[in-house]
Amino acid sequence: MARHTASETRGPFQAMLVRYPGKGGWTFATIPPALAPPITRGWGRTPVRAVVDDYAWDTSVWRAKGSKGAVLAVPRRARGGKEHGDSVTVTFTFEWEE
After folding, report:
1. What is the mean pLDDT of the chain?
2. CATH topology for 5-97?
3. SS in 3 state form for the chain?
4. Cβ atoms within 10 A of the Cβ of 77, count?
5. Which among 37, 65, 67, 73 counts the fewest CB atoms within 10 Å?
6. What's residue 55's pLDDT?
7. How large is the average pLDDT for residues 66-89?
8. Domain ranges of the chain
9. Is the pLDDT of residue 63 over 90?
């Protein structure tokens, strides 16, 4: 039987940027549990097409340790001048098999 792939978009929603402490720490946007995509790949990740404040790129959403939510690593080029504590608008699209 052939598998059918569907895509789903979640957002837009507001998320606060959080920088992981320490040298070289990444900056993440927290995705609320109600909007977190299902895990579709190993290590608790889901490949997505993310859009943060009108900047789009292909990446993955990761399940947050100890929560039902997820996180999206937001690189400097996608943040513009925004940093830890600033708010961004997030939308993401992912595919899954029906």
Report:
1. 90
2. Elongation Factor Tu (Ef-tu); domain 3 (2.40.30)
3. CCCCEEEEEEEEEEEEEEECCCCCCCEEEEECHHHCCCCCEHHHEEEEEEEECCEEEEEEEEECCCCCCEEEECCHHHHCCCCCCCEEEEEEEEEEEC
4. 8
5. 65
6. 97
7. 92
8. 5-97
9. no
